Structures
1.
Amino acid sequence: MTGQLADHYRRLAATYDDHWTYDPEYVRAFARAMAGALRLHPGDGIVDVGCGTGLYTRQLADDLQPLRPITAVDPTAAMLDRVPVSPLLRPVLASAEDVASGRVSLPGPGPVDAILVKEAIHHVSDRAGTLRGLAGLLSDRGRMLVVMLPRTIGHPLFAAAHDRFEALQPDPAEIADALTTAGLRASVSRRTFPVAIDRERYVRMLEARYMSVLGEFSEAELAEGIAQFRHAYREEPVLRFEDHFAFVTGWVRRA
Ligand SMILES: C[S@@+](CC[C@H](N)C(=O)[O-])C[C@H]1O[C@@H](n2cnc3c(N)ncnc32)[C@H](O)[C@@H]1O
């Protein structure tokens, strides 16, 4: 992870959950969609790679009541420190690359049946190699879900942020190809989560650089972008938009 990215998540850690809990149903609906896509059941060995503060991991665990704790992996200590202490969660300080390469081994016992990578794959530079390594950890009923934003998003960002996002964000098709090359049966589907959020709250999220792409801008550039945002949405005290996600799944092929 670059120093800039590490600083970004270190700074964001304390407020990360607040940005996403303005609508508790958003997190609940998202966790249900991921559990459905992975067809999770309580007997599965589950790993959440790039779990951040565990905002979604803990919802998954609360809903599923897994028989073994969900392993919650993240390379940013400040984010991982926010994962609540729970017998249902087991935090591991590591990157996707650490786990994929075996530099950090996952705590047992039992096989890994389901791997979730939610909104973290864009931070991995060797995506094909890392996904291959993660796929190699899966049991013979294993499956992986990579959740990511598409390359074009409808978030009410300012123009320069949209441009930068599109330049940086990998294509879900690239991830599906990587899962296929890793030997999994891959597919891509779209999910949409409606968002309604007070404009002033969204301004605070922009100021906090709630998306990592906002970390690409200097203070002055961000202030200019927020001014543009305020002007564009001056008539809308509540912003409504659709949050589209790609769900890229990979299933172990049975012999
Ligand atoms: C946008 S947050 C998503 C967190 C969580 N999955 C969620 O949806 O709330 C991205 C997370 O990826 C982590 N991250 C950054 N580089 C990573 C890497 N190489 N491998 C795994 N996670 C990484 C960051 O520390 C951060 O917690």
2.
Amino acid sequence: MGPSAMKPLPLKAPDLSKVAEAIAAHRDQPGALLPLLHAVQDALGYVPSEAVPMIARALDLSRAEVHGVISYYHFFRSEPPGRQVVQICRAEACQACGAEELLAHAERVLGCARHGTRADGAVTLEPVYCLGLCASSPAVQIGAKLHARVTPERLEQLLAESLTDAEAV
Ligand code: FES
């Protein structure tokens, strides 16, 4: 995970309960670790460091094993994301259609490095690997919304629509 201006605060009790709920829901299924990590990230937006020993204990794994899986998959965040998450696909089909240029453009427009969260916490910029729109690349996801064939101009437009006035660049 890249630099972030926000230092995560200690996890609050309701968030710890959400981790405990995810553990209870998944601990007995075969290959529980990945679905469990997904459930934690779905609930909290990231996998907090406090969750690692809880998950390790529940699945009878070492903390290093859990941490290793979190760092191996780019998908999992170890820090809370910004209020808006912008994902730009860098997999093959999108690479061939200008994804790298699009990502560099997003960095400039947002004032935020890839894998990073802007200092004001407004936005996190993440390269991702396939959003399932390979035939209409390059693809971008902003929040829950997917966008196909995104040009740098269109990206600027989408970002302006997605960030509030106070957060816009
Ligand atoms: S390669 Fe980018 S959406 Fe699949």
